[in-house]
């Protein structure tokens, strides 16, 4: 949550810098860059709120916790990015039809470069933290900041070309290119958010670790089947059946199940394993058409 608070502070600073750059140059490209910084601010504020909710402990109304709240932050950020991109296109097309000379390009470029350096440094730190904590809210904010850096680079390049060759339409063309780029990023964030809310299965490399761990316990009298998995925010869940000899005592069976659960949770951080015990000669069927009614 500390990084999201830092992101809010950096967003405020970059809004001031980029808005000033637009004000003194009257560049629609720099205006598009400034608008995206407003999206950064709104996204960071909403992301902080959702991460706060996600950290709440499980309760009677939410026995599996509140981890999915982070997906709302990612989806909201994607939506804001798309809205900002449409606004940029509208402004850029209007300026393309009515070109306007740019002023004081040196100061505008300098302010844009400074704000991009701040965003780039913060994005790198946030991405490392997102991978460590498996936080989609942090990842969404980091990816948006990275997009913002590329946006600023494109704007600076466009302004440089305008100053070099005098083609005023390049400013609007760069702004439209920026909008297309952030539209792609916004759509990607919304897609990832929707997949998380739909209980997508664990990553293939994580499931490889699960199967490798289970293989260490398998025996001609012990086997595992009906293995299913899902992700919920930073939490990972896996369910399965463990078959064993019918003559085993409940205590012996429960002890083995505990060993398997502990091994799985050690192999995959943040994993919650649920194992149902069944005798070797008993099968569970989930494909009966009556179960789908």
Task: Kindly describe this structure.
This protein is mostly helical and about 290 residues long. It folds into two domains: about 1-195, Up-down Bundle (Alpha-lytic protease prodomain-like); about 205-290, Alpha-Beta Plaits (2-Layer Sandwich), CATH 3.30.70.1350. It has helices at about 1-25, 30-55, 70-95, 105-135, 135-165, 170-195, 205-215, 250-265; strands at about 225-230, 235-245, 270-280. It is elongated. The two termini are about 45 Å apart.
Considering the chains and any ligands shown, give keywords for the structure.
293 residues, mainly alpha, Alpha-lytic protease prodomain-like, Alpha-Beta Plaits, 2 domains, 3 strands, 10% strand, disordered C terminus
Topology summary:
Layout: H1 2-25, H2 28-54, H3 69-97, H4 105-133, H5 136-165, H6 169-197, H7 204-215, E1 223-232, E2 235-244, H8 250-267, E3 271-279
Parallel strand pairs: 2-3
Antiparallel strand pairs: 1-2
Helix pairs in contact: 1-2, 1-4, 2-3, 2-5, 2-6, 3-5, 3-6, 4-5, 5-6, 7-8
